[in-house]
Design a protein that fits this description.
The chain is mostly helical and about 170 residues long. About 80% of the residues lie in helices and about 0% in strands. GO terms for molecular function: aspartic-type endopeptidase activity.
């Protein structure tokens, strides 16, 4: 059972967050709460030591503070900040720096791509889709949750969770 949780829950939730951010420009709180609760569930089921859980909590809290500073400056959305923190909870200090570096690089590429797309006229067939029109709108932000989700999926196989499965 714990193997199934490790293999499916985290990836499914971060993919859902990315798709939601792409289509609606929002990451529902239930996704970030789900990530956090699933971390505790998997940590308990796998027998993670209380001290290690504490270090993972510290990593999540540190990322939450930093991400909300980015939110306060208008660099990312609130859902992105919460997602980064919930994901950091899973990664702990062992992997959080690489996660944030990859997420930042991918976010930069995503931003540059959207800026390029927004500089071009939106084709009529694409304008019929609300989510595409929203992405094209220069007044709309960047769905940074996509970059965070891809970074999370890149880092996840390197974590102790997956290493314990022999993946």
């Amino acid at each position: 059972m714990s193997q199934l949780l490790i293999l499916l829950v985290f990836p499914a939730l971060v993919v859902y967050a990315a798709v939601s951010d792409l289509l609606r420009m929002t990451i529902p709180n239930r996704v970030t709460v789900g990530l956090a609760l699933a971390f505790f569930g998997v940590a308990l089921v796998t027998g993670m030591a209380p001290a290690e859980i504490g270090w993972h909590l510290a990593a999540g809290a540190l990322v939450l503070v930093a991400a909300f500073a980015c939110f306060a400056f208008g660099w990312i959305g609130g859902g992105d900040a919460k997602m980064a923190a919930a994901t950091a909870l899973w990664f702990g200090f062992d992997h959080v720096l690489m996660y944030l570096l990859i997420g930042s690089a991918l976010g930069g590429l995503l931003t540059l791509g959207l800026l390029q797309m927004r500089a071009l006229p939106l084709p009529r067939f694409a304008a019929r889709h609300a989510w595409i029109a929203r992405l094209h709108d220069t007044k709309t932000g960047v769905p940074y949750g996509i970059a965070l989700a891809i970074a999370a999926l890149i880092i996840y196989p390197e974590t102790g969770w997956m290493q314990a499965l022999g993946a």
